[in-house]
Amino acid sequence: MFKATVTRLFIGSLIALAAGATVLILAIAVAIANNVFVMDGNDIAAIQGGTLSTALLGVAFLGALTAAGGVIAGFVAWIGAVLNTWQLESKAWFVALVLTGIFNFGFIAMVAYVIGGPDRSVAAARPRAHAPSAA
C-alpha cells in the first residue's frame, strides 16, 4: 500500500469519524429536547413512540455506524502504514508505529507518519549503492 493511499484512507477515516459523531450527538440532543426519552431521574426509563422518535433514533444509529466505520478505516490505515514501513531497510518507523499502536497512541503515530513518514515506493525507486567487488 502506498503512502498516498494510507494518507487518503486516514484522512477519510477522520472525516467519517467526525461526521458520524456529530450526527450522533445532534440526533440525541434533538431527541432529548423533544422529550423522546422518558427519564426516571438520571436514567432513561422508556422511549416515547412516534415518528419523530423513530426518525431520530434511526439518524443516531446511522451516525454511530458512520463513526464506527471511521474507526475501522483508521485501523486499516494504520495496518497499511505498518506494512509499508516493514518493507524499508530501516525499521525505526515500523517499530514506532507498532509500539505506539500497541500502547494506544496510534493516532499520534499516524499523524506523524502522514506528515513525515517514509514512502516505500520512493525508497524502492532509489538505486542502492553496491560495494565494489574484489577481483
Number of alpha- plus pi-helical segments? 5
Strand order of the largest sheet: 1-2
Derived structural class: mainly alpha
Mean pLDDT: 88
- What's the overall geometry? elongated
Radius of gyration: 23 Å
Strand-residue proportion: 5-15%
* Number of E strands: 2
Largest sheet: 2 strands, antiparallel
Termini gap: 41 Å
Secondary-structure element order, N to C: HEEHHHH
Helix content: over 70%
Description:
- This protein is mainly alpha-helical and 135 residues long.
- Helix content is 70%, strand content 7%.
- The chain is built from 5 helices and 2 strands; from the N terminus they run αββαααα.
- It has a two-stranded antiparallel ribbon with strand order 1-2.
Short summary of the structure?
The chain is mainly alpha-helical. It has 5 helices and 2 strands, in the order αββαααα. It has a two-stranded antiparallel sheet.
Question: Which features does this protein show?
Answer:
2 strands, mainly alpha, elongated, 135 residues, 5 helices
SSE order and pairing:
Elements: H1 3-33, E1 37-40, E2 43-47, H2 51-86, H3 92-102, H4 106-116, H5 120-125
Antiparallel strand pairs: 1-2
